[in-house]
Amino acid sequence: MDVRWEEAGWERLTGRAGRRRLPVWDCTVGLVVGDESVLLIDPGSCVREGARVRAEAERLTGRRVTHIAFTHGHFDHVLGGPAFADAEFYGAVGLERLLATPTGREELRESAVRHGLDAAEAAGAVDLVPAPKHLVSGEWTLELGGVQVLLANVGPAHSQHDLTVLVPGEREVVFCGDLVEESGEPQAGSDAVPGQWPAALDRLLSLGGDDALYVPGHGAVVDAAFVRAQRDTLAARFGVSRA
Predict the structure, then answer these.
(1) Which of the chain's ends, N or C, has fewer CB atoms near its CB within 10 Å?
(2) Three-class SS string for 65-108?
């Protein structure tokens, strides 16, 4: 156990990677520490929360967060983004349109308020949230110094723009976004593509392998067996043939 991380409310997963479960929506924020750069995955649900995450991450690493990856475009995963305006932003191709258009921003604001975020906070964050400039259509290797992180576009599935982050190390860590949920049943909203969700999890498993740590968008860290079981449950739920 890394006492310094644990005392700050973070879970150290490997020498390079850790995560924090944020309050209210139990959303996971991931952190990958390179020798030269720091990547943060899903910066929280509002600017206030993002600023707190940034302060904690920079205190733990001793330097600023240089890269942000959005696993998808739901409010609890992106609206902390304005607190990292000087970082480089990455997302699945198409996410930039969702975050940059008036229609997409209004849908994001409405979703945040509907789920309980203060209306003024939601509006302020939506106005400022950066659209990713680095767009992943297949796979993208991100060099952080001493560690190469793989960004993989495996959707659409849970959303139209699902991105996963794979971190090599003594044990590979896979940040799944909401493709995998442990603390509740996976949610399929109006932007989900249920028929492709099991295949996205097959892709996730092929990238991570049997021995990886899989970090859900919500809930405790799981193993490959959990992901396979959730894949099968989703296939049955949505009537997707496994043949």
Answers:
(1) C
(2) CCEEECCCCCHHHHCCHHHHCCCEEEEECCHHHHHHCHHHHHHH
CA–CA gap between residue 167 and residue 207 (Å, rounded): 11
Neighbours of 90 (CB within 10 A): 23
**Of 181, 215, 203, 177, the residue nearest 95 (C-alpha):** 177
pTM for the full model?
0.96
Cβ burial 32-41 (10 Å sphere, 16+ → b, else e): bbbeebbbbb
- The 3-state secondary structure of 1-51, one letter per residue: CCHHHHHCCCEECCCCEEEEECCCCCEEEEEEECCCCEEEECCCCCHHHHH
Q: At what angle do helices 47-61 and 119-128 cross, to 10 degrees?
A: 60
Burial category of 147 from C-beta neighbours within 10 Å (exposed 0-12, middle 13-18, buried 19 and up): buried
E-assigned strand segments in 116-228: 134-136, 139-143, 148-153, 163-167, 173-181, 213-218
- pLDDT tens digits, 17-42: 999 999 999 999 999 999 999 999 99
Minimal CA–CA distance to 72: which of 108, 18, 31?
Answer: 108
The radius of gyration of the chain's CA atoms, rounded to the nearest angstrom, is: 17
CA atoms of 172 and 168, how far apart (whole Å): 5
Quick check: 215 and 28 in contact, CB under 8 A? yes
Distance, CA of 199 to CA of 206 (rounded, Å): 11
